[in-house]
Write a structure and sequence with these properties.
78% of the residues lie in helices and 0% in strands. The chain is mostly helical. It starts with a helix and ends with a helix.
Length: 122
């Protein structure tokens, strides 16, 4: 449940970042010489699409869908990389999102509820 809620929240934050980036190019700092330079609108679309998918996968995890666990690890990893590349634009917000992604990956990779449930029922 922890991973599902965090992934859902991470997706909502991504949607908000995306909307802010699409709505106005002046919301985020402009970077002149940066290797991963896209315009802010492009970053907005990237965050918006990733955010929507993260929300859907987070809901899948909360509903207990088998596919959602692997997809959650993959998408949290992808979101972590995207936010690392986004770091110069909004450092604090990017670091918070990276931390959430690390917790999601950890929670999804260390889930032992299936083993505990089988042991209790035996």
């Amino acid at each position: 449940m922890f991973a599902g809620v965090l992934l859902f929240v991470d997706g909502v934050l991504g949607v908000l970042k995306g909307i802010a980036g699409i709505a106005s190019n002046d919301v985020y700092t402009r970077i002149n010489d940066y290797v991963f330079k896209f315009n802010v609108t492009s970053w907005g679309w990237i965050h918006l699409i990733l955010g929507v998918v993260l929300v859907l996968v987070g809901l899948g995890i909360l509903k207990g869908a088998a596919w959602a666990r692997g997809a959650g690890v993959a998408l949290a990893s992808l979101n972590l990389i995207a936010n690392f590349m986004w770091l110069p634009y909004t450092p604090v917000w990017a670091i918070v999102t990276i931390a959430i992604d690390v917790f999601v990956i950890w929670a999804l990779c260390t889930d032992r509820s299936g083993r505990d449930d089988r042991a209790r029922s035996s």
